[in-house]
Design goal:
CATH architecture: Sandwich
Strand content: over 45%
Shape: globular
Structural class: mainly beta
Distance between the termini: 27 Å
Number of strands: 23
Oligomer: single chain
CATH superfamily: Jelly Rolls
Order of helices and strands: EEEEEEEEEEEEEEEEEEEEEEEH
């Protein structure tokens, strides 16, 4: 998914982790297109990263059978309709709870995102992709779009790539289960490519049950509730809320409400590099982001270039970049 805000703010984060924390991060509603709203959890006004996770949008459940003014960006269309747009120095992680999305990209990939299946795209120095709901897609759409910042040692040298995984490892607990999307949880590792120590899992706890979830003390963690609610310490995050857990724990007890709970567990080693994030680009300086924007606009004008190719099979125009802010993109702390 693209960051479709018309006036996106820049975000620069630095790695800093304080030890055990319990803090609810409230979502910020962001309108994409003219009528579709997503809940943006990261970057947050208090915390801009969790491990290398630097962007989290939670959307739906949306009933695609209802009349809509427009979709995510294309007037008159249903569901998600995000035209070709660029990314740099990150990985996109697409995860659905309900529905189906069609993915195409500039390295020639054509795939469908479906519940329980992972689509992960590595941008390297530059890639473009589109995401659309097809006419025969299931009636409900509910999912999360996440970005992972790539470390400096690989971010411009790793070739752009797309990977899809229909069969991911599962963990079975007493009264709970988890699918390991990315990284390692309780000694079980996803086959998806990861360039920093990372954690991403889809976890379900049965109604009223308690899960003692194993953690790595050197990692920081957060949980995003996507169905039901849970208790962790004195916090009771509900649907669409993220609880930040900090670091320094080898386990944590999570208690499902009477209706059960489903959540995404996100975490990893604190990301120590400074980064600048604006629109769909991640860089290390104002000048780098400006160069990426210029290259994307040049690719649109030329029908593709060495850095950003076009997306074969997509019927429509690519998404132009918004104007840059009138000031230099400046560093901000990771957490207030």
């Amino acid at each position: 998914m693209s960051d479709l805000e018309k006036d996106p703010a820049e975000v620069i984060g630095t790695g800093d982790c304080e030890g055990p924390v319990l803090e609810v991060l409230e979502a910020r509603e962001v309108v994409l297109g003219r009528s579709t709203t997503v809940r943006r959890l990261l970057p947050n006004k208090n915390r801009r990263m969790v491990g290398a996770w630097c962007f989290v949008d939670h959307y739906g459940p949306d009933d695609l059978t209802q009349e809509r003014v427009d979709s995510y960006d294309v007037p008159g269309e249903r569901g998600m309709q995000v035209p070709p747009h660029p990314h740099t120095s990150l990985q996109t992680v697409s995860w659905l709870f309900e529905g189906e999305i069609e993915h195409r990209d500039s390295v020639g990939s054509h795939a469908f995102v479906r519940p329980g299946e992972l689509n992960i795209m590595t941008a390297g120095n530059g890639i473009a992709h589109s995401e659309v709901s097809t006419p025969d897609a299931p009636p409900m759409l509910h999912g999360a779009q996440l970005w992972v910042a790539l470390p400096d040692r690989v971010r411009t040298t790793t070739p752009p790539a797309f990977n899809a995984y229909a069969d991911l490892p599962r963990l079975e607990f007493d009264g709970a289960h988890a699918t390991v999307m990315v990284g390692t949880v309780a000694g079980v590792t996803s086959p998806a490519p990861a360039y920093t120590p990372l954690v991403g899992a889809d976890v379900t706890i049965e109604p009223g049950r308690t899960l003692a979830l194993p953690l790595t003390p050197e990692h920081e963690y957060a949980v995003l509730v996507v169905d039901g609610s849970l208790s962790v310490g004195e916090l009771t995050p509900g649907f669409g809320e993220m609880a930040y857990l900090g670091s320094g724990r080898d386990a944590i007890e999570l208690v499902a409400a009477d209706n059960g709970v489903r959540f995404l567990l996100l975490g990893g080693e604190p990301f120590e590099e400074e980064l600048v994030m604006w629109w769909n680009f991640i860089g290390r300086s104002h000048e780098e982001v400006v160069a990426a924007r210029d290259a994307w606009q040049a690719a649109i004008d030329a029908g593709g270039n060495d850095r950003f190719g076009m997306v074969p099979g997509y019927d429509g125009a690519p998404l132009p970049a918004p104007p840059l802010p009138g000031t230099t993109l400046k560093p901000r702390p990771r957490a207030r």
